[in-house]
Amino acid sequence: MTIARTPAPAKVLRTEYQKSVASYWNKEKDPVNLRLGDVDGLYHHHYGVGEVDWSVLEGPEDTRDERIIAEMHRLETAQADVLLDHLGDVKPDDWLLDAGCGRGGSSIMANARFGCHVDGISISEKQVEFANHQADIRGVSDRVRYHFRNMLDTGFETGSRKAIWNNESTMYVDLHELFAEHARQLEFGGRYVTITGCYNDVTGGRSKAVAQIDQHYTCNIHPRSQYFKAMTANDLVPISVVDLTADTIPYWELRAKSSVATGVEKPFLDAYREGSFHYLLIAADRV
C-alpha cells in the first residue's frame, strides 16, 4: 500500500487549540502512563475495565505499590482487548488505523492478535517517536508504524482501511469532521470502534465533575447523543453499543489508592456514580 501524501507539520496542527493539545502531550510524562507501561512494554493512554483483584492491597507493604501498578496495567490492557474484540474479521493483509494512538500499545496488540498492518497517528511528535521506538524494540516496525498526523486529515488513501478506532481520543476533535474522515478511509463494510467518555445529555449539560475532567485534560467531552448523530450523518451505522461505566469504576477506585493518582480520580468517580458521565464502546459499520 502507498500513502497518498505526507502532511507538512504546519498542516498537522491546524488551530491554536490543536497546538495547545500537542504541547500538553509532548510535555506529558505522567507516571500513571509510564510506570504502568513499564510492566511489560505496552504503553497505553486509556483507562481500565473489569473486576479488580483487591488482594493486591494485602501482603508486604514494600511491594504493595508494585502490585497495584501491575493490576492497573492488567485492567487497561483488558480494556484494549475489549476494543479489539469488536473490530470484526481482520486478516493479516488488512490495514488498520489507530487514530490518536498515544504511545502505541493498542496498535501493537492489534498486530499481535491479527498479524495485520497498523498505522498509528498522533499530533504529539514525542508520542510518535516513543511509539516507533517500541515497535522497533519488538521487531514489528515492518507492520506497525506511527506518524505525526492529524486524525481529521490523515493523508492516507480513500478506502484503504479495514478498521479504524479511537480509544479515548474523540474528545479532542469535532465529531462530524472526524467521522467524515474515518468514513472516507474505511472500505465499504469496514468497521469503526470507539471507547470514550461522554456526558449524559438526558440529564442536562456538563456536570461540575465532567467540567473538571475537561479542564484536567484540556479536552472537550461530547454529549452522548452527538456520537450517534455524527456517525449516521457520515455513513457509519452503529451495530453495537456497550455501556462500560460499571466496568470501569473498580479501576478508578483502585487508582485512587495508588501512588500514581493524579487528582482527577474523584471527578471521574463522582461523574460516573451520579450518572452524568458514561463510558461507552460504540462499534459502527461503513455503509
What does this structure look like?
This protein has a single domain (25-286), classed as Vaccinia Virus protein VP39 (Rossmann fold, 3-Layer(aba) Sandwich). Strands 3-2-1-4-5-7-6 form a seven-stranded mixed sheet, with helices on both faces. It has helices at 9-12, 16-27, 31-37, 64-85, 105-114, 125-138, 175-185, 208-217, 224-232, 245-256, 265-274; strands spanning 95-99, 117-122, 144-148, 161-167, 186-199, 236-243, 277-286. The longest helix has 22 residues, at 64-85. The radius of gyration is 18 Å and the shape is globular. Residues 1-9 have low confidence and may be disordered. It is built from eleven helices and seven strands. With 287 residues, it is α/β, with parallel strands linked by helices.
Helices and strands in order:
Blueprint: H1 9-12, H2 16-27, H3 31-37, H4 64-85, E1 95-99, H5 105-114, E2 117-122, H6 125-138, E3 144-148, E4 161-167, H7 175-185, E5 186-199, H8 208-217, H9 224-232, E6 236-243, H10 245-256, H11 265-274, E7 277-286
Helix pairs in contact: 3-4, 7-9, 8-11, 10-11
Protein name: SAM-dependent methyltransferase
InterPro entries: Erg6_SMT_methyltransf (IPR050447), GPPMT_Stmyces (IPR049645), Methyltransf_25 (IPR041698), SAM-dependent_MTases_sf (IPR029063)
Pfam families: Methyltransf_25
What portion of residues belong to β-strands? 15-25%
What's the Cα radius of gyration?
A: 18 Å
Oligomer: single chain
Assign the structural class, choosing from mainly alpha, mainly beta, alpha/beta, alpha+beta, or little secondary structure. alpha/beta
Report the CATH topology name. Rossmann fold
Number of domains: 1
Elements, N to C (H/E): HHHHEHEHEEHEHHEHHE
Examine the secondary-structure arrangement and name the CATH architecture.
Answer: 3-Layer(aba) Sandwich
Q: Averaging pLDDT over every residue, what do you get?
A: 95
- Which regions contain 5 or more consecutive residues with pLDDT less than 50? 1-9
Mind summarizing the main beta sheet? Answer: 7 strands, mixed
What share of residues is helical? Answer: 40-55%
CATH homologous superfamily descriptor: Vaccinia Virus protein VP39
Amino-to-carboxy terminus distance:
23 Å
* CATH hierarchy class name: Alpha Beta
Please count the beta strands (DSSP E, at least 2 residues each).
7
Organism: Amycolatopsis thailandensis
GO molecular function: magnesium ion binding; S-adenosyl-L-methionine binding; S-adenosylmethionine-dependent methyltransferase activity
GO biological process, one term: methylation
Domain Methyltransferase: 97-190
